[in-house]
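Example protein as discussed:

>
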Amino acid sequence: MIDDLFDGVEFEESRSPSPFAPTLTRQKSKLEIKCELSVRKQTCNEAEDTHMVTRQPSRRPLARSTSSESVVSLGAEKKATPFPISIDSYRTEKRKSLRKQSDNKKVVRNESVQSVAPPRAATVKEKIGGMMEEIQQQQRVIQQASAALNCCYDAHHGKGSITELEAEKLLLIASEKRLALLAEVQALKSRSVTEPPQTVQPCLGNLTIRNLRLPLRTEYIFSMASKKDCGDIRSHYYFLLVRCGPTRILASHLASTHDSLSGDSLVFSDEFKLVDLESNFDITIEVYSVTHRSRADGVPNQEKSKRKLSGILHKSLTPRKLRSRSHMTMTHTSSPGGPNAIRISSFSLIGAVSINLNDVKSEKFTLQKVPFLSPISGHFACKIEADFQSNVEQRGFLTMFDDVGGLGAWHRRWCALIRGVLFSWTYPDDEKYKEALCKIDLTSCISERIRTVERIMCARPNTFELRTMRPRRHGDKDNLITQDTGSVITTKHWLAADTKDERIAWIESMNQALADVRAWDTNALKPLK
């Protein structure tokens, strides 16, 4: 009966659904309710596991889901929520990102392009190792030269030839180099370790020696001409040995009195260039000589006498004695010590002279240790040129103090310090096209060092001073920057930099240039205290 009453209601609802009609739903069964509750519980458990994994990923592994829907929902949640879940995790990630940025940050300083790191100085052990290798090389040269000289036992094997003299010269040079290296090795082993000085050191320089001439005695020249007319030629061979420092040795070519004379002097066409020298260098030039006799036809006297003696003996000997004589003459001994014996050179020292920076302008020197009967006159002539390698250059604006009508005035100038001379122009472009308005040569500087002017003397900051001296001229008077001291005029130069760093750079550059000029230029004035 109840079913009959509700049959009409279901028909009308399905036929004309109205929003205002009352909604009647069918009740769920117990099985459906259980299934729905289990699905909701499983979903809540998976969401809780995901939250714990996100908070502590290293402590608890990710729980595997048996439902495909939960896996899809988890992947979508990871892609859709890139932000940290809590404020603590946000702060942690922020600190990590800042730490990575600070680690990858590079600091670049505006260093000068011309600033090059100084080369590393070799240690004492490295120097000794290099010298020992050089000693072994010179020992091999000595052995080879001695072996070559041991083979020169007659005229047919080079006895008395120029080749033999060249071998004697090579033997002497190698022996001298070996002795110099051994002495330097012993000095390095016994030398104590010293720290490099902190003061300004002058730069290195170069030295060139050319036009070397060795004057001969007039008596020797006349006697040599008379012996040549008689058919007997007695020649003297010379060469020069230049010692610079403990191990640097240079040699000239062989010059003979027979074919290298120019007037009354023996001329050497060699040119010696010595680089990287200190200002307190000491160079020794040694003269070595050997005597050589020969006939005018080029055959040595020893060979002539041998031929004459062999002819006389050949006539007086019987055939049997002649065979034994010829057999005995076939065996020759190259040297009393055997073919591997070390020989001593036949060249001897006949004169020496020492040269330093003060002798650069001299062209004639007196030889020491010259034998009394030596063909040379005891003098030595050459031309020496010295040049220093000062690379100090500084450019920038400086404000220069000047006297204008008895009043002090400051003028801003573009200045350039080049090879010990300070040039000044009005503008930087004038350096290429115009002459300098003012030149200050550091060779005339009498200041011991260039220092900052005290504020009591000059109120302008970053001001430094240098004093120069020159001969007195007509019309010179005392003013704010010049002072008449009798025969000379002392000038006070005040230069002001723009900043403290520029002042320090200018003072260091000018002090270095001043040290270079005073060390290498003999015309530079000495400092006055």
User: Anything to note?
Assistant: The chain is about 35% helix and 25% strand. The longest helix spans residues 162-190. The chain has a mean pLDDT of 76.
